[in-house]
Amino acid sequence: MQMRTWIGAAALAVLVTGIGAAGNAERLVPALALASKSAPAISTDTGATAPDATAPDSGLEADADMSQPAAEGTALGPVTNLPLPRYVSLKTNEANVRRGPSLSHRIDWVFTRRDMPLQVVAEYGHWRRVIDRDGMGGWVHYSMLSGVRTVIVDKDMEPLYALPDTKAAETAILQAGVIGRLGTCDKTWCRITAGGYSGWTPKSVLWGVDADEIRN
Q1: pTM here?
Q2: Confidence (pLDDT) at 47
């Protein structure tokens, strides 16, 4: 029986539904709602729902994507000397998002989705100002971030192709909101891994990679 796979970002369970007269089946790993901001704002750490740091200080490069050199003319952060802005991912299941770069600042949000892509737009000491795909965010401790690149699929029911060509075989179908590990990118396509499946998808349907970014 020919199979196509639907990939989402929830609990990687597989749902099977029959479609079409030929009895083909399609599998879906349902997508998770992007509940990336879900915390009450509190003024101190008492009763905080998520940590600011769970890892010891091991340097200021926790959020570095060392595989990609900075493009000529790119602005560099005053602390890390890394490009600004730059994409990172959330290393933990929960991370406080504060109004300013210190523990004394109010918590406005808590990011609650591990591996979600974020964009660093400013840095101060051990703190990074980040935004999500909706432009919302604040300051998080650098140890909550990873240089591992991920992307969010912005288009629902987007095919994942075996090759960077819309005529190639479809290996899976991506629901909107799926988070995938980012691999190679050319001018118009990126290779990603999500739900245990790898393939190519148009760069235009992804958040977490620049339109002109090339990755080897």
Answers
A1: 0.77
A2: 35
